[in-house]
What we know:
This protein is of the alpha/beta class. Helix content is 34%, strand content 18%. It has a four-stranded mixed sheet, with helices on one face. The protein has a three-stranded parallel sheet with strand order 6-5-7. Strand 1 (4-10) and strand 2 form a beta hairpin.
Amino acid sequence: MSERIRYAWGQSSLGDFIAAISNKGLVTFEFMKRNSGVPAVLRERFPGAAIDVDEAGLADVVGMLAAVVERPDIDPGLRLDMRGSDYQKKVWGILRRIPVGQRINYGAIAAEMGNPRDARDVTDAIANNTIAILIPCHRVVKKDGSLSGYRWGAKRKCALLAREQHQAGFRLVS
Length: 174
C-alpha cells in the first residue's frame, strides 16, 4: 500500500503556505503561492504517495501553523516527520534546540557536527529543510552575525527574527 500524504493551504501575515501530513507527522510547512491541483513540490517529494487535499481535516493544523508564523515562540506540539539523510536530520535537530530569540552561525553548527572548517554541508542541509519555523533555519546567520539566505525569502527571515527578538530578546549563540 502506498503512503498517503494529506495537505491543506493556509494564510498568514507572511504569505500563503502549504502544510502536509503523513501518518507519522508534519512533512511539509512551506511558504508558497496557492495553486490549483496537487502542488508540484509534493508530487516531486513523494512520488509514490497518494496525495490528497484535506482542508477540513487539517484545519486545526493550519490554524496552529498560522499562529506560529505570528508567534514563533509558540510550540504547537505537532509531531514532525523529518525526511532527509541522517546528516540532515542531525543538523535539523541542532536547529530545533536553538532557543527562540537566539541565533547561531553555520560554523558553530559545523563544529557541533564534528567538522568546524566546512560549513558547506551544513548549509546544504539547512537549504533542504521543508518544515519552516518548526525547524528554525531562519535562526542561522553568518559568522559576523549578518543575515544570509533563506529558502522562503530574506523578507520572511527578517520578519521572523524581528518577531522572535521582540518576544524573547536577542543573543548570538557561539
